[in-house]
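Minutes, project check-in
Item: structure for the 322-residue chain
Input as provided by the requester:
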Amino acid sequence: MKILVIGVGVIGTTYAWQIARGGNELTHFVRAGKKRFYDEHGIRVRCLDQRHGAGAEVDDMYRPAFTEDFSPEDGYELIICAVNSHQLGDVLPLLKNKAGDATVLFLQNMRPGDDELIGKFLDASRYVIGYPFKTGGGRDEPGISTVIFGNRLSNTVLGERDGSVTPRLRHIRALLEKADMNPKIIRKIIPYIRTHYIWAAASVAAFIKAGSWERFISPEIIRESYLAMREGWEVCVRQGINPRRVAPTCYFYLPLFLLVPFTRHMYDDEGMRRMFQGHVDHSPDEMRAMYYDVLALGDEHGLGMPHYRGFKPFIERYFSRT
């Protein structure tokens, strides 16, 4: 396929790096003035790849094509949009006017309501939604530091807005299967991305409060993070979404005496540590915005959220130093 990728951060680069190995033609759209730099240097990818065995450390130079502009005449079949959530509003007008006949795959963390924002620019026939739960990490000047998770629960989640399973969705799944990125089609993609955003916001807030990875995976902090998530998911209830009917969110309502030790076991992993640390270190604006987005939604719906709100002093203190 001829594919354009919007975003040279962890998600866009990791997925494109893997998709390119299947013989596809990848081009990355970059900001004006950046093409020359990327043409000369490429993107260094340092990856902990956990898909096979205990995990392999990979250090690779990824050198796709780069462009500062695109048009319908370029003939792209697929456009992968993998930008930070606060950048989405700037990208949508470009997609509306320049995507042509390409299917747009939004493969990114979405704030509650971003799905509605997309609908103001693109008809549902022009895009599908995904969530990149297969990878994570951070970005610095030489490139990216990423993790590709190996456990079977780490999926690249895909879905149509209306819940249908279309030929184009199957085609994208096949593309990602060839890239070994564990795609999974689900019918409830909007409830998934909305509940998952709250999971991520509460998890990052708990991580910041903990102050260290060892403290973060303690039973006390894990328990507090789940109590905060459950408060946040009441926002989804007010929006007409039942979190108890959305996988994997439904499992996070299990009794805490079962949930906490299971989560501690799942988090006791080098890849998870690198993912959380990378997000906080290299995407501070997005991480801070995530916390306050959920807090504002709670206020809007008249929810007290004492556990979630209790993270606020730690968030303010941490980000005042960054």
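Outcome recorded: The chain has a mean pLDDT of 94.
No further action items on this chain.
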